[in-house]
């Protein structure tokens, strides 16, 4: 009996600890992604300035100086031209002056931002990571703007995040180099990469997050939770020795045993009752955890999505404020306004998502709602030379629903369809009945979705568009679910996408 109690206790503590560590690893990964992303965006904004486009070394130094005053970090900024020659750097530390052979140069010259490392700084011998983005002249990549961040900076950030001293946080690259850990030497010994389950899980099976248990060097069992970053090819690993809570479980287990012993002496059925109760509360706990996870996911996402435009606005206002008395370049204002629009858009969509009170459902007619939605979307379609066609089977039964919410569903889907067709096309909308259901299809002749995109749509903030919020389908799916509807998506890259939505029809005899 005592074993049973002990293991149940252990499992529960184990589960709680696992949840906690999973949450921590998520949070750390989001934080690092956020950190890398805001630096990348800052570099992209710098790449838009005339000084950099024209490769005016003294002006670039000025900009870098202003920028590093605004962001006091121990990092280094620099610009290299298309031959890889460094034309400016700040602060004026030595830096190898020809970067043509470096992967971070070559990758950014292909037109994409690049995050890489660890490299060894040739001057200081310190380990560093490097972020590079291209700058353009006459629509061609003309060189790169780069940023060097000491690895110790990343370590400091990870240390500040850590509140539970019984866990430790490490960072490794997908190539298996240990990047950061409070005891880096030891960590490097422990994660002989190809032998570690991490290699199998992350590199071979392409898992993005998860957990495993493993004997450490001193044969102490350890729990590892991991998550791959989206902004860099790195994995965050949170490690905790299992002993830490084994001993705690032992004590609680002992106490439970005494209580159980007494209970057994008196009434065996009380145990059944208690077990039943515990199962119920366990189910409730799981439900609560799921809810919290969703809130957490959204909150981390919102912070991330809103912080990026804010960082960029801050940077431009700082640049503008340095131009005492002189005209502020229209590009600054434009960028600031664009970023503000983006925040406005995200907050706008969040409001729809967060709306707590369900509106009252009534009998509504989808034909009328579809017609109104199409009328609403026609102007936008015309601008993009897109034809909207609507075909409704006569005499459709009503559905029970909230007409504004249903309209929102169709607006979101038609909007996505329009946005998928840059060079014109057709959106075909049809409504018909099929054995007790109403089936609505919205088909476009746009760019279609890859398998991977199809898998990810409807995840908060997943978007393939530069200005997308990635909330449209989250809201849409939620509203459809709220109407007891079902969605099915068919899509082929280069051919088009068809959304099929099925709503249960109301009782016809009551039309
Ligand atoms: P957003 O429109 O802000 O990107 P959504 O949640 O509405 O966010 O859509 C998520 C992603 O799903 C889009 O970025 C796009 O990649 C894909 N998608 C949605 N609808 C379509 C469509 N009709 N055709 C092609 N891709 C689509
Ligand atoms: Mg959308």
Summarize the structure.
The protein has 511 residues and is α+β, with helices and mostly antiparallel strands.
Detailed description of the structure:
- The chain is 49% helix and 23% strand.
- It is an alpha+beta fold and 511 residues long.
- Among the domains are: 48-152, Beta-Lactamase (2-Layer Sandwich), CATH 3.30.450.20; 362-510, Heat Shock Protein 90, CATH 3.30.565.
- Strands 2-1-5-4-3 form a 5-stranded antiparallel β-sheet, with helices on both faces. It has a 5-stranded antiparallel β-sheet with strand order 7-6-10-9-8. Strands 12-14-15-17-16 form a 5-stranded mixed β-sheet, with helices on one face.
- The longest helix is centred in the middle third of the chain and has 54 residues, at 268-321.
- It binds adenosine-5'-diphosphate (ADP) and magnesium ion.
- Magnesium ion is lined by residues 412, 415-416, 472.
Task: Write out key terms for the chains shown.
511 residues, 17 strands, five-stranded antiparallel sheet, binds magnesium ion, Beta-Lactamase, Heat Shock Protein 90, alpha+beta, disordered N terminus, binds adenosine-5'-diphosphate
In the CATH scheme, the class of the domain at 362-510 would be Alpha Beta
Q: Assembly type of the shown chains?
A: single chain
Stated plainly, the CATH topology of the domain at 362-510 is called Heat Shock Protein 90
The Cα radius of gyration reads: 28 Å
Reported for the largest beta sheet, the result is: 5 strands, antiparallel
If helices are DSSP runs of H or I spanning 4 or more residues, what is the number of helices?
Answer: 14
Name the CATH architecture of the domain at 362-510. Answer: 2-Layer Sandwich
Strand order of the largest sheet: 2-1-5-4-3
Indicate the overall shape: globular
Based on secondary structure, the structural category is: alpha+beta
Bound molecules: adenosine-5'-diphosphate, magnesium ion
Q: Which regions have little confidence, pLDDT < 50, spanning 5+ residues?
A: 1-7, 247-263
| Strands, total number | 17
What value does the average pLDDT take? Answer: 79
Q: What is the CATH superfamily classification of the domain at 362-510?
A: Histidine kinase-like ATPase, C-terminal domain
Fraction of helical residues? 40-55%
Strand content: 15-25%
Q: Report how far the terminal alpha carbons are from each other.
A: 63 Å
């Amino acid at each position: 009996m005592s074993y049973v109690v002990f293991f149940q206790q252990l499992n529960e503590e184990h589960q709680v600890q696992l949840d906690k560590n999973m949450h921590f690893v998520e949070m750390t990964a989001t934080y690092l992604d956020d950190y890398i992303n805001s630096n990348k965006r800052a570099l992209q904004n710098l790449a838009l300035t005339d000084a950099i486009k024209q490769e005016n070394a003294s002006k670039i130094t000025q900009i870098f100086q202003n920028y590093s005053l605004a962001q006091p970090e121990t990092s280094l900024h620099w610009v290299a031209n298309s031959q890889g020659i460094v034309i400016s750097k700040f602060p004026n530390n030595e830096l190898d002056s020809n970067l043509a052979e470096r992967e971070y140069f070559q990758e950014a010259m292909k037109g994409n931002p690049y995050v890489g490392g660890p490299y060894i700084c040739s001057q200081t011998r310190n380990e560093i990571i490097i972020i590079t983005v291209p700058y353009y002249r006459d629509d061609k990549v003309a060189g790169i703007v780069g940023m060097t961040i000491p690895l110790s900076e990343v370590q400091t950030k990870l240390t500040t995040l850590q509140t539970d001293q019984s866990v430790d946080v490490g960072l490794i690259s997908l190539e298996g180099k240990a990047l950061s850990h409070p005891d880096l030497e030891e960590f490097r010994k422990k994660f002989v990469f190809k032998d570690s389950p991490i290699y199998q899980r992350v590199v071979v099976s392409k898992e993005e997050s998860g957990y495993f248990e493993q004997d450490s060097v001193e044969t102490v069992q350890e729990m590892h939770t991991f998550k791959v970053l989206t902004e860099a090819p790195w994995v965050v690993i949170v490690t905790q020795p299992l002993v830490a809570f084994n001993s705690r479980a032992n004590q609680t287990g002992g106490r439970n045993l005494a209580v159980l012993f007494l209970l057994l002496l008196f009434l065996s059925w009380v145990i059944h009752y208690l077990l039943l109760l515990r199962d119920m509360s366990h189910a409730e706990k799981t439900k609560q955890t799921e809810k919290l996870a969703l809130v957490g996911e959204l909150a981390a996402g919102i912070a991330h999505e809103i912080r990026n435009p804010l960082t960029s606005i801050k940077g431009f206002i700082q640049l503008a404020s340095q131009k005492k008395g002189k005209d502020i370049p229209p590009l600054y204002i434009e960028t600031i306004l664009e970023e503000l629009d983006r925040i406005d858009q995200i907050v706008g969509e969040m409001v729809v998502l967060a709306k707590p009170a369900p509106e009252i459902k009534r009998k509504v007619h989808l034909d009328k709602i579809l017609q109104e939605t199409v009328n609403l979307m026609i102007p936008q379609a015309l601008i993009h030379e897109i034809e909207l066609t609507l075909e409704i089977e006569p005499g459709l039964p009503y559905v029970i629903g909230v007409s504004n919410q249903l309209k929102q569903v169709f607006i979101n889907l038609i909007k996505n369809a329009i946005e998928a067709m840059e060079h014109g096309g057709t959106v075909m909308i049809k409504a018909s009945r099929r054995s007790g259901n109403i089936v609505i299809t919205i088909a476009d002749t746009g760019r279609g979705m890859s398998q991977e995109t199809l898998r990810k749509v409807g995840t908060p903030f997943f978007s393939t568009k530069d200005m997308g919020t990635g909330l449209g389908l989250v809201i849409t799916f939620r509203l459809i679910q709220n109407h007891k509807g079902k969605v099915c998506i068919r899509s082929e890259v280069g051919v088009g996408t068809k959304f099929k939505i099925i709503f249960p029809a109301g009782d016809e005899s009551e039309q």
